Amino acid sequence: MNSRWQNLIKSALPFGLVLSAWWAVAAAGWYPPSLLVSPQAVAQSLTDGLSSGELQAHLSVSLGRLIVGLALGSGIGLLFGILMAVSRTFDVATAPLFNTVRQVPSIALIPVLILILGVDETFKVVIIMKAAFFPVALAAAEAVRGIPAAHIEVARAYRLPRRTVLWKILLPATVPDVVTGFRLAAGRSWGTLVAAELIASDAGLGQMMEFGRQMFRMDVVMLGLVIAGLIGFAMDRALKALEVRLTGWKGAR
Questions:
Q1: Are 22 and 207 in contact (CB under 8 A)?
Q2: Which architecture, in CATH terms, is 42-246?
Q3: Using alpha carbons only, what angle is made at residue 183 by residues 180 and 186, rounded to the nearest 5 degrees?
Q4: The pTM is what?
């Protein structure tokens, strides 16, 4: 058996153990079904959701919000981080507010954003943007600050235009670290989105879970938890593979 299959088995083993423990506890009847449903009930809920198309509809809404918020938040964060690194004036002016706001959990801003923006799509996109903005901005700033001074001096010696310096030197140098920041941003954004949908939404994975709670359908709630975890895991693995490809010499954690 090659190492790839061995690693796959090792990765799958914890999932198998958790699933087995879940099935055993549910079968033993230690908790009523209203609190802990069996894996079979969750699997049946999955089948019903796929058959009706309801699950696909909720997932498409959530993933659409995630893509838009991640793209906007990461793009703005990338430019902001580069400006912080290349402009001392900009850094001094923005660093205090930047470092203050980034300490505030995104979930804690949900009530304030609801009051300001309401509960429509703008609110969900903005909360995702906040979750994505700071990890990418920090990664970009540190990456640019880590560029050897000799590279910038050569660019100045050749009198390269600022646009060329940005696109040919600064942005390529940030790619490996920004991918690492984006990996962190994606996980935070996904968790924040599901939490926001739990509180205020008419569609999405979080809303599906909240509806299940209101209807005492723990199978729907557990299905939402499992799907949220699997999607987050899949995103992290995909981004880790990209991170390793770009920063293999450093290794990805």
A1: no
A2: Orthogonal Bundle (1.10)
A3: 150
A4: 0.81
